[in-house]
Amino acid sequence: MPEQACLLVTADHGQVHLERESWVRVDALEPFTTTMAGDGRFRFLYARKGAARELLEAARDEVGDRAWVWSRAELLDDGILGTGATGSIPGRVGDVVLAARAPVAFVDPALPNEVQLRSGHGSLTADEMLVPLVAARGCAR
Question: 6-137: what CATH class?
């Protein structure tokens, strides 16, 4: 590279290493859910009609030691998705959100192959929020 040039290499997010045993099944929550979505480390749970409160309580009991657990309203009111989470965004967010704080990911039964992933991202831990940057400048020959 010419002396006056600079090369920057970056990524859009960090990663968390996951082993097979890092993937947590949340079978106890399935009776309250219709479906799941999102990333394994930032999982949206959609409640059966009338079961949102029970789902939230069950999720906090089941995984509250490994994840931040929010209702949709809490997530939006706390500004976790930023101040621009308006329009159609609230309707797409799950009734309950699991954001992993431990090195785990939450299994979506509709995505059985997802458990083969060996890294994950999407939650709010320092490792995932860190955006790597490497810089190098050119050298005179």
Answer: alpha beta
